Automatic annotation (TrEMBL):
Cofactor names: [4Fe-4S] cluster
UniProtKB keywords: 4Fe-4S, DNA damage, DNA repair, Glycosidase, Hydrolase, Iron, Iron-sulfur, Metal-binding
Cofactor binding annotation: Binds 1 [4Fe-4S] cluster.
The protein, known as: Adenine DNA glycosylase
UniProt family annotation: Belongs to the Nth/MutY family.
Gene: mutY
EC number in record: 3.2.2.31
Signal sequence region: none
Organism encoding this protein: Christiangramia sediminicola
Pfam families assigned: EndIII_4Fe-2S (PF10576), HHH (PF00633), HhH-GPD (PF00730), NUDIX_4 (PF14815)
Enzyme class: hydrolase
DNA sequence: AAAGCGGGGAG
DNA sequence: CTCCCAGCTTT
């Protein structure tokens, strides 16, 4: 039997009941696909529900303030996705009269939509025969066909896309694409794949050659960089503080945080007082410093470990641009800040 | 071609 | 601890 037939048979009997599988509306499919980029379904699911409730149509999303969108995205990570999501919503709503492009080529032009996402939307919404290649597809194909070309090499990306496109059921690309991904997620898993009950265990080259654990091949892991964050949590008359919005190309672009002093190592109060950035932050204020956490919080990102200390800067003099402490939770903040706030803010403020 | 971008779950 | 997740963009 051809691969696509076995795959779709497996899919029909094993697929999960997911909300975006009840619709072919481009807005909902697009929203789910952006959210699920590099994100597990279990993690993205609650966000999907939140977004379709807050923004039932692309027009609602387009009209929303950027900070509201980021706030709703808070905790999901890769925040450029949220910024691109909003940009694309505005483009579709205001430039395309709310109608999404109806082809792979057209979809590919949208911000935040790459080869995978354009293929997913085009196949699911418009039955266009374009194969998706996500992490699941790489794994399933690498194993069944015993391919050891690195999946994140230029050659690998080309090779796997070509193979997936050949295998694709051109008559029902929507089902095939979702089937191969679901199969990778539930059956041909990274660890402990269920080879014993696999519909392909008669032909899988990786199983035959005992290479399940080697495939797929992925090029080198990046090394983690250590950074040292000192947040200045201003406490003005026990009612106000300062937040700043992150800008630029680094982590958490667009999110808010307390004034940050970054150092090259863990520092004490005396070191902090000597730093120019710190002196500039407090200007001529009369302050009293207290360290909130002696043991730094180690916030782990994919490529960085952030050793973080929160310094409470008490003062009775007001500062320009200060905001009410209660208002802090209205701003989109990194999980690192959110966790701190849950420890720091009295219950009355939450 | 390589680097950068989050947070969380599984083993 | 390591690996990886319905990847994309920038350099």
């Amino acid at each position: 039997m051809v691969l696509s037939k076995r795959l779709t048979y497996w899919y029909l009997h094993n697929k999960r009941d997911l909300p975006w599988r009840k619709t072919h509306e481009p807005y909902h499919i697009w929203l789910s696909e952006i959210m699920l980029q590099q994100t597990r379904i279990e993690q993205g699911l609650p966000y999907y529900y939140k977004f379709i409730e807050a923004y039932p149509s692309v027009f609602d999303l387009a009209k929303a303030p950027a900070d509201d969108v980021l706030k709703l995205w808070q905790g999901l990570g890769y925040y450029s996705r949220a910024r691109n999501l909003h940009e694309t919503a505005k483009f579709v709503a205001f430039e395309l009269n709310g109608v999404f492009p109806d082809s792979f080529k057209g979809l590919l032009k949208l911000k935040g939509v790459g080869d995978y996402t354009a293929s997913a939307i085009a196949s699911i919404c418009y039955d266009e025969p374009v194969a998706v290649v996500d992490g699941n597809v790489y794994r399933v194909l690498a194993r069944i066909f015993g391919i050891d070309t690195p999946i994140n090499s230029t050659a690998g990306i080309k090779e796997f896309k070509k193979l997936a496109q050949e295998l694709l059921d051109k008559k029902d690309p929507a089902t095939f694409n979702q089937a191969i991904m679901e199969f990778g997620a539930l059956h041909c898993k990274p660890q402990n794949p269920k080879c014993g009950t696999c519909p392909f265990n008669d032909k899988c080259l990786a199983l035959k050659n005992d290479r399940i654990k080697e495939l797929p091949v992925k090029l080198k892991k990046t090394k983690v960089k250590k950074r040292f964050f000192n947040y200045l949590v201003f406490n003005i008359d026990d009612e106000k503080t300062i937040l700043e919005q992150r800008t630029g190309k680094g982590i958490w672009n667009g999110l808010y945080q307390f004034p940050l002093i970054e150092s090259n190592a863990l520092i004490d109060e005396a070191d902090l007082m000597k730093m120019e950035d710190f002196q500039a932050s407090i200007s001529n204020l009369k302050i009293e410093l207290s360290l909130f956490n002696e043991d730094p919080v180690i916030h782990k990102l994919s490529h960085q470990h952030l050793f973080t200390r929160f310094w409470v800067v008490n003062s009775n003099e007001d500062i320009e641009n200060s905001i009410q402490l209660q208002r802090v939770q209205d701003y989109p903040v990194p999980v690192l800040i959110e966790n701190f706030l849950n420890d720091y803010l009295p219950d009355a403020y939450k």
